[in-house]
Automatic annotation (TrEMBL):
This is Acyl-CoA dehydrogenase, type 2, C-terminal domain. The lineage of its organism: Bacteria, Pseudomonadati, Pseudomonadota, Alphaproteobacteria, Sphingomonadales. It comes from the Bacteria. The keyword Oxidoreductase applies. InterPro entries: Acyl-CoA_DH_C, Acyl-CoA_Oxase/DH_mid-dom_sf, AcylCo_DH-like_C, AcylCoA_DH/ox_N_sf, AcylCoA_DH/oxidase_NM_dom_sf. Signal peptide: none annotated. GO terms for biological process: L-leucine catabolic process. SUPFAM superfamilies: Acyl-CoA dehydrogenase C-terminal domain-like, Acyl-CoA dehydrogenase NM domain-like. PANTHER family: ACYL-COA DEHYDROGENASE (PTHR43884), ISOVALERYL-COA DEHYDROGENASE, MITOCHONDRIAL-RELATED (PTHR43884:SF12). Residues 234-364 form the Acyl-CoA dehydrogenase C-terminal domain. The keyword Oxidoreductase applies. GO terms for molecular function: 3-methylbutanoyl-CoA dehydrogenase activity; flavin adenine dinucleotide binding. Pfam families: Acyl-CoA_dh_2 (PF08028). Keywords: Oxidoreductase.
Length: 386
């Protein structure tokens, strides 16, 4: 039975699997942080919940969900645990990887659509043309989810320019060819396992390389959706999920939290009432913009039209905004909580630290505000943006 003929899990089975995943993510987030990775059995739960087949083409046995559907799934997982949501977000890589040749995609999904991918792009390392493909050696950082991946992609630059005109490529290889160097020692998102990855003279066939952000080999609306804006969106939505969790937990806490100095409960303090209302409005506003432009862009592609540069810039802008709002809300909640949040093992500290890491990512950093502004003002957009 090939991938196209495989029987998909019933919707009720998928729903039950997602609930199992969410329960595990909530209960085991300290374990993820301590181990600096999402546990292997939880990655299997993600598979069962349909995370890794969600964006895979139907022709390969996948679900081929819309971007908004996938983003809502990642947001839900992120409410349970930010690191779990971050690792799950790389299920979007099926869109990214669709720039590979059709024959390569058929080989990748020959045993089914639930393929776990991780990657490290920067800095691109030298690759040397040899018999059988490109010999790749080097070390790459930020390999989120690499400990649970089955295939890994790394950024390369072909010695002599190669057939792609010197553009950086992603080389994809089985995880068994990659050495993981555990070194993920950070203040937040500790469970993502974003360790360094090392390849030593691994020969990657050219058919398993592609231009980062290159045109998809598939031609349905999902695979015409711009992969680089989507790469920013799947990370930003983690921040929305964390902020939702922080806000909900703070509301639950506020009714019973009193001060050792005898002050009123948090819920009875005017500044808390005001700040909770502002946080709710900010989160809902950021989320509305985020999903509105996502659905608008996808509807344009479904109608057979191309996305304008302005629409692509709005996708990036909505992502940067979502990441920043999520970080700001969790910081406000930390402040509201007073001394409660200073303990390293408290949920307030955990969520605040996770959320602060997200807008530090290059796809969501402060420079992306300026880049979006240039596009909206009709100025020339920077290379690679949006």
């Amino acid at each position: 039975m090939d991938a196209k003929e495989q029987v998909k899990p019933e919707p009720s089975d998928r729903t039950a699997a997602l609930e199992t995943l969410l329960s595990a993510a909530r209960a085991r987030r300290d374990e993820f942080s301590a181990n600096q990775q999402i546990s292997a059995d939880v990655v299997e739960m993600m598979k069962a919940a349909g995370v890794y087949r969600a964006m895979v083409a139907k022709r390969f046995g996948g679900d081929e969900k819309s971007p908004a559907e996938f983003l809502r799934l990642i947001e839900t997982i992120s409410q349970a645990d930010g690191s779990a949501g971050w690792v799950a977000s790389f299920g979007f890589s099926a869109v990214y990887l669709s720039a590979l040749p059709i024959e390569t995609l058929e080989a990748m999904y020959a045993n089914g659509p639930d393929v776990v991918f991780a990657g490290g792009i920067f800095p691109p390392q030298k690759a040397v043309p040899v018999d059988g493909g490109l010999e790749v050696s080097g070390r790459w950082s930020w390999g989120s989810g690499c400990t649970g991946a089955e295939v890994i992609g790394v950024g390369i630059k072909v010695e002599g320019g190669g057939s792609n005109g010197g553009l950086p490529l992603i080389a994809v290889t089985p995880a068994k060819n990659v050495q993981i160097v555990p070194n993920w020692d950070v203040i937040g998102m500790r469970g993502t396992g974003s360790h360094d990855m090392v390849l030593d003279k691994v020969v990657v066939p050219e058919a398993w390389t592609f231009v980062r952000g290159g045109k998809s080999s598939l031609d349905t609306p999902l695979y015409r959706y711009p992969s680089m804006p989507l790469a920013a969106q799947v990370l930003a939505v983690v921040g929305l999920g964390i902020a939702r969790s922080a806000l909900d937990q703070m509301i639950a806490l506020a009714g019973g939290r009193t001060s050792i100095t005898g002050q009123p409960t948090l819920a009875d303090r005017p500044y808390v009432q005001t700040d909770i209302a502002k946080a709710e409005a900010a989160l809902r506003s950021a989320r509305a913009f985020f999903y509105e432009i996502t659905e608008e862009a996808y509807a344009t592609l479904v109608a057979g039209d191309e996305l304008s540069v302005e629409t692509r810039a709005l996708l990036r802008l909505a992502s940067t905004n979502a990441a920043r709002v999520g970080a700001d809300i969790t910081l406000d909640i930390y402040r509201m909580a007073g001394t409660t949040g200073v303990f390293a093992n408290h949920w307030i500290a955990h969520l605040m630290q996770d959320a602060q890491v997200i807008p530090q990512h290059a796809f969501l950093a402060d420079t992306t505000w300026q880049n979006a502004g240039k596009v909206l003002l009709g100025l020339e957009s920077p290379p690679g943006y949006p």
